[in-house]
Amino acid sequence: MATEKEAQGGLEWRVSVPEGSAAEMELESKWIHRARTWLIQLVMTVVSKVTSFGKKAGKIGADDPRKVIHGVKVGIALTLVSLFYYTRPLYDGVGGCALWAVMTVVVVFEFTVGGCLYKGINRAVATSTAGTLAVGIHWIASKSGEKVEPIILSSSVFLLASAATFSRFIPNIKARFDYGITIFILTFSLVAVSGYRVDELLRLAQVRICTIAIGIAICLVVCVLVRPVWAGQELHLLVSRNMDKLADSLEGLVEDYFMKDKKVEGEVSCSQRSQGYKNVLNSKASEDSQANLARWEPGHGKFGFKHPWSQYLKVGAAMRYCAYCMEALNGCINSEIQAPEHMKRHLRDVCMRLSLGSSKVLKEISSSVKSMKESRSIQVLVGEMNDAVEELQVALRSLPKQLTQSPAAAAEAATIEKRHCVPATTISLMEVMPLFTAVSLLIEVSERVGGVVDAVGTLATLACFEPIDHKKASSSVVPQDEESMKPSQEV
Amino acid sequence: MATEKEAQGGLEWRVSVPEGSAAEMELESKWIHRARTWLIQLVMTVVSKVTSFGKKAGKIGADDPRKVIHGVKVGIALTLVSLFYYTRPLYDGVGGCALWAVMTVVVVFEFTVGGCLYKGINRAVATSTAGTLAVGIHWIASKSGEKVEPIILSSSVFLLASAATFSRFIPNIKARFDYGITIFILTFSLVAVSGYRVDELLRLAQVRICTIAIGIAICLVVCVLVRPVWAGQELHLLVSRNMDKLADSLEGLVEDYFMKDKKVEGEVSCSQRSQGYKNVLNSKASEDSQANLARWEPGHGKFGFKHPWSQYLKVGAAMRYCAYCMEALNGCINSEIQAPEHMKRHLRDVCMRLSLGSSKVLKEISSSVKSMKESRSIQVLVGEMNDAVEELQVALRSLPKQLTQSPAAAAEAATIEKRHCVPATTISLMEVMPLFTAVSLLIEVSERVGGVVDAVGTLATLACFEPIDHKKASSSVVPQDEESMKPSQEV
After folding, report:
1. Helices B98-108 & B113-143 angle (0-180, nearest 10)
2. ipTM > 0.85?
3. What pTM, to 2 d.p., does this model score?
4. Which of A251, A289, B190, B320 is the most exposed place for a label (fewest CB within 10 A)?
5. What burial letters (b/e) apply to A140-178, b meaning 16+ CB within 10 Å?
6. Tens digit of pLDDT for each residue in B156-193?
7. Are residues B141 and B252 in the same domain?
8. Are residues B313 and B216 in the same domain?
9. Which of A281, A284, A424 sits opposite B422 (nearest CB)?
10. Domain co-membership, A197 together with A288
């Protein structure tokens, strides 16, 4: 269209069609075609990447809506702080320093209340101590003459920054005051190095501390009032959820091993269930950090101010100790060499009973932790688990006979046994080794479950779990299970 | 003395000594005594606490002097930044914004070069993108009238802060851009919410980006030039050190088990050595963070820019997989039930050979990783390890006879065996179970060592380890060992 118009308007314009133009145009159209294909592909890739990213983000949000809420909370806190810039009286009061309020909100706002308090308290204390110290040194420096002043200030910054940075490598300090030390160095350097006079500094420090306090206050109010996430409660739930996973996993592993041929269809879901112990293996880092933050939290819900959070770490360690053994059991179950079917059959029922017994113990203490009530039936369940261990040992004791007794030779056995002899057609020990190992590890796992029970027992004492009403406990067992499950939904 | 003088000077003055004063004075002196004791105790406690803290800090510094050096480096960087305040021309240039340079140094300076680069790049990119975006929105808002302006600004802060905060929950983004997102939110909020006009903003942004660049440059220069600590090299050393620990631990465990009675004196040191695998169990977090930071580092020493850091994580996972099994082995070795001595003796030599074989394999790949040279003898060593597994299996196959042959019955055996019978005086299977389990786990450990070898093989391919000179390799084995050990000291 444009070319036609131009041709009509201007005589000078001519379309020149040199020879070979058809070929060139073909080339050109090929080129255009390629470029178009490339562009479409590019757009498609970008769209698919964005879509998959969006799906991923959507899944994360759907799995834990609190993460979305956290985003909204940060938005609210920042919007509240930005009000300081638009409301006149506030502006006049803290105006120029409102920068610090915004910065405080951005840096201090954390997912959990404990995280918020940890950073808020660290920031407040570090700012005030470092500020005071710096003003003091500034005052000394200002009295000692213009030439000495920068030397005093620079060397004090050098020494304090070096010492404070090194102190971050001390584990206890790192765990509790890491953020505070950063802020300490920052505040001290800024104040000591600034060119202000001491009286100006005092006024500035006052305003700055005030704005930081406002920032921290806004953070805490929004963090605590809008759907709070407590680090302590998270830790509490993580530990009890991990116990359930261990229990399921143990049942699943033993079932996988002994019922392998029976259910091929359900195997995938069963195997997934049996791999839950892996979560326990990898949860040390989150347990540590949550216990660390939980210390900063005031009492909330069922947890007092001095709730023994460090004991949860011991329970976690006992569970991991259990999970290590289950990992070895898993390896042994998936071993290439499998014991003969009749040997497995001999031990199947006792092994299943033991795994079920251990799993019941784990589930019981899990629900006891969840509800923060002493368990009524734990003694009975541990007793049952130990009985199952003994039964398994009895079954093992009767194995040497089985070991040497092939089904065909069974008829012979009676006569031979009278002569105090067994037939020498022994099954290779290599064949039964994985079975022995599995059984032995199963017994070891149940022993380590005992360790978890002990750790939870100490937790129950330290955290003053609600004691059992012995009258009720003896009257019936079923209602207790229902009761102990109920509060878990409330948590 | 004072009372005498006063008595001489003033007649009015009289010392009144009421009845019971002796008792009161005694009480008072008791009180003073108590207070003094308490004060002394307090001082002692404080002194002892400070001393123990100092000792702890001293030990940390002595164990790893780089931590002390890091403190000094931070001091140097901060002192360099503070020069901006005392050097006139520089002051005039970036003066009021030097705050940002100090802040950048304090916040960006990390222990490793990777950490420094991660934070520096994140800070620079986030500041510039957020600044540009905020200036754009500010401009739009300023055009839309005084009433709409705060609404546009506040809602943009709310939306962007919420979205950015939520994006931190996406694992990939969290791992690479966590710090950048904080700075993005901070910069955007500060700029969008500030009361400046757009042209003022542009000048401010320019100065601020300039000061941040100066801060980052000082950080990087000090971090790289003064005894740099590379996250990649740390990861590299951690992984190869962990392999050595696994190797020692495996040897130690098996020695502990089979030589328990032989050396009671050396047991403590031996047990300590055998517990090295626990370090491997707990090193996931540091491996992850170091691999994460190593990605930001340019090529250094023997490591190229695209060094396959993520493969180290796979090697680490394979080692942990090994360590889980060793943890179960440890439990089994410390079991209360111990196999009869003559049974243990039967398997001792083959088990020791297997543990030594596996340990040699681990040490060989460790030195191969350290020196970044393909190993010459790994095939031979793995072959030896597998031979040892087979030997152990042969020894196990000959066990059923041993199982039923008490030393006393040994003489009888020959006659009985002719009749194809074994005596029915069987040793309880329960007694030998821990031995079987230990042996079985030992075999499993050696299999998992194979997994570590494979992971290191992949690493060797990806990281282009120096290939073997086959001529040299075939000529002798001893010099190769020496050679492969040498570079480990250089690393």
Report:
1. 140
2. no
3. 0.81
4. A289
5. ebeeeeeeebeebbbebbbebbbebbbbbbbeebeeebe
6. 999 999 999 999 999 989 999 999 999 999 999 888 87
7. no
8. no
9. A424
10. no
Q: Are residues B199 and B297 in the same domain?
A: no
Q: Which residues in chain B are contacts of A159 at CB distance < 8 A?
A: 75
**Number of Cβ atoms within 10 Å of the Cβ of B11:** 7
Structure tokens at B187: 């910069």
The values of phi and psi at residue A376, to 5°, are -80, -35
Closest chain A residue to B104, measured at CA: A186
Is B71 in contact with A166 (Cβ distance < 8 A)? yes
A64 contacts in chain B (CB < 8 Å): 169
Over the stretch B127-138, which tens digit does the pLDDT of each residue have?
999 989 998 998
Q: Would you call B90 an interface residue with chain A, using a CB distance cutoff of 8 Å?
A: no
From CA A20, how far away is CA A8, in angstroms rounded? 27
Domain housing A355:
231-402+430-465
Among A74, A282, A346, most B C-beta atoms within 10 A, so best to mutate, is A74
In angstroms, the separation between the Cα of residue B34 and the nearest Cα of chain A is 32
Pair A126, A104: CB distance under 8 Å: no
Which of B72, B102, B193 has the CB atom closest to A162's CB atom? B72
Side-chain half-sphere of B106: how many Cα atoms within 13 Å? 25
Domain total in chain A? 2
Please check whether residues A83 and A118 belong to one and the same domain: yes
H-type alpha helices, A10-145: 21-63, 65-86, 88-94, 98-108, 113-143
Q: Which residues of A touch B286 (CB under 8 A)?
A: none
Q: Is B338 on the interface with A (CB under 8 A)?
A: no
Q: A141 and A115 in one domain?
A: yes
